[in-house]
Structure formats: structure tokens, C-alpha cells
Specification:
Layout (H helix, E strand, L loop, with lengths): L1 H23 L3 H27 L6 H24 L2 H22 L7 H19 L3 H26 L3 H34 L1 H21 L5 H8 L2 H11 L6 H20 L2
Length: 276
């Protein structure tokens, strides 16, 4: 259990870290595109090698394609949220409301049955998000909530895909599809800036891609050593890490309210997962 705890907490730090790198980028859309492109190319090569050695993995490609396409509005809206608002406000709202959207999608589409404990978690998350929202403009809050909606949609899609596939193979296929669709979109909107940005920010983009990939891998390893709910709950500590990072590293204000709100969101997510 100790090993799983360390792995889950490391995954939380890495998730907050790659989002922080995106927030600090000069063009956040291009930063996200570069990250997904590098990860997608690496996973594409990995799938080719996998297929050559052991045959193609069992992947529900229809769901991977849908989820990959959903990453277009995800990067557009996430970059907009980080353009409009502070990291210590946007990230906790995105993560908290995104988890709620995923849970709601599970209830409405996958016929999941939430327990009374889970509903307490929902109330706590909503409370934390509302406390954050009181101190921010609707211009900022709406952008973060829009990202949450896309997270909720692709979470449900990925749940379908993972249940019908070899999980690691599915996640690799998903990243390949995400790279394809985000590149196609970015070619239409920022064609003249893509190569220059990739050359100038290759290290940062590669670091973000590596951090996100390692974070997910650590979670996969952790859930082999501990209950999924335990690992998922610990991973959500990233919202508290983000609140501290915004205060200490980006010099963002109103830190007491934001850290307190992030802690409430984290506790709510823990209760939500534990009651699942």
C-alpha cells in the first residue's frame, strides 16, 4: 500500500506540473498541441512495435477516435481557461467540475449507481467550486467549466473504450488519435506558428508529454497494488498542489481562499471516489 500511495502522489505532482508548464507557456494552445503530438508519435511507434512483436492489441478504435476528436475542444478550451484566469483558480475548477461531469455522465449513460456517500462528495466538490467562483469573474469561471464539460464527455467515452479494449493499448491508441485531430485543427488555426513553436519549445513540450505519460503509467502501476478508488482519490490531491503552485511559483493572489477551496474540492473528490 505504501508503494501505491507514493506512486499516486507522484502522479498528482506530475499532472499539476505539466499543467503548470502549459500555463507558463507563451502560446498555451501550441503548448498543448505539441505535448499531445509528441506523446501521440511516441505511442504510435510503440503500437507498431507492439503489433510486430505480439500482434495488434485489442483496441475499440471507434471510441479512441471519438475521444481523440474530443481533445480538440479540450485543448482549445483549456488554453482559453489558462489565458483568462489564474492557475490556482482554473485548475481546481477544471479538475473538480470535470470529475463531477464524468460522474454525471456515468449515471446518465453508463447506468452507474452513486451511493449516499458519493452524493456527499458531490456536495463538497460543488461547495469548493462555488467558493472559488465567488472570487472570480464569470469570464474566467465559464472557461474553466467549459473544459470540465469536455473532460466529462471524454471520460465517459474512455470508460466505454477501456471496457472493450486492452487498457494500455487503448490509451496508446487514444493518444495517437488525439495527436491526429489536434494537429489537423492546429494546422487550420496556427499553421504558420507550429514549426517555430515546436523548435523553440521542444524541451518544454517533451517534458510535459513525458510528465503526462509517466503520471498515467504510475496510476496504472498503482492500481495493481491498491484499490482503484484509493489511487484515484490520492491522485486528486493535484488540485491542492496546483493552488500552492499558483501562490508560490506564479505569485497569484487570494491564496488563502484558493487553497482552502482546493482542499474542500480534494476532500469532496476523495469522498466521491470512496463512495463509488
Amino acid at each position: 500500500m505504501l508503494v501505491a500511495t507514493v506512486l499516486a502522489l507522484c502522479a498528482a505532482v506530475l499532472h499539476a506540473s505539466w499543467n503548470l508548464l502549459v500555463k507558463q507557456s507563451e502560446d498555451r494552445h501550441l503548448a498543448l498541441w505539441g505535448q499531445f503530438t509528441i506523446a501521440g508519435v511516441a505511442c504510435g511507434i510503440g503500437l507498431i512495435i507492439w503489433s510486430a512483436i505480439d500482434g495488434p492489441p485489442d483496441v475499440a478504435w471507434q471510441w479512441a477516435v471519438v475521444s481523440g476528436a474530443m481533445h480538440v475542444p479540450y485543448i482549445v478550451l483549456l488554453s482559453r481557461a489558462y489565458n483568462r484566469g489564474d492557475f490556482s483558480m482554473s485548475y481546481p475548477i477544471v479538475r473538480g467540475a470535470g470529475a463531477l461531469a464524468g460522474a454525471l455522465g456515468g449515471i446518465l449513460i453508463l447506468n452507474d449507481s452513486p451511493s449516499a456517500v458519493s452524493m456527499i462528495g458531490v456536495i463538497l466538490v460543488i461547495s469548493g467550486v462555488l467558493i472559488l467562483a465567488r472570487a472570480g469573474s464569470w469570464h474566467v469561471i465559464s472557461a474553466a467549466l467549459a473544459v470540465s464539460a469536455t473532460i466529462g464527455i471524454y471520460t465517459v467515452v474512455d470508460a466505454h473504450g477501456a471496457r472493450e479494449s486492452q487498457p494500455i493499448g487503448y490509451s496508446m491508441a487514444l493518444l495517437v488519435c488525439a495527436a491526429f485531430f489536434t494537429t489537423a485543427w492546429t494546422l487550420g488555426t496556427k499553421r504558420g506558428l507550429m514549426i517555430a513553436s515546436l523548435k523553440r519549445n521542444a524541451r518544454t513540450m517533451s517534458g510535459a508529454a513525458l510528465a503526462s505519460t509517466i503520471a498515467y503509467t504510475l496510476v496504472l502501476i498503482a492500481v495493481r497494488r491498491a484499490p482503484v478508488g484509493y489511487v484515484a482519490a490520492l491522485r486528486e490531491s493535484s488540485v491542492v498542489i496546483a493552488a500552492f503552485a499558483g501562490w508560490k511559483m506564479l505569485d497569484e493572489g487570494d491564496h488563502r481562499r484558493r487553497i482552502a477551496s482546493a482542499i474542500i474540492v480534494f476532500v469532496g473528490l476523495v469522498v466521491l471516489v470512496a463512495g463509488g
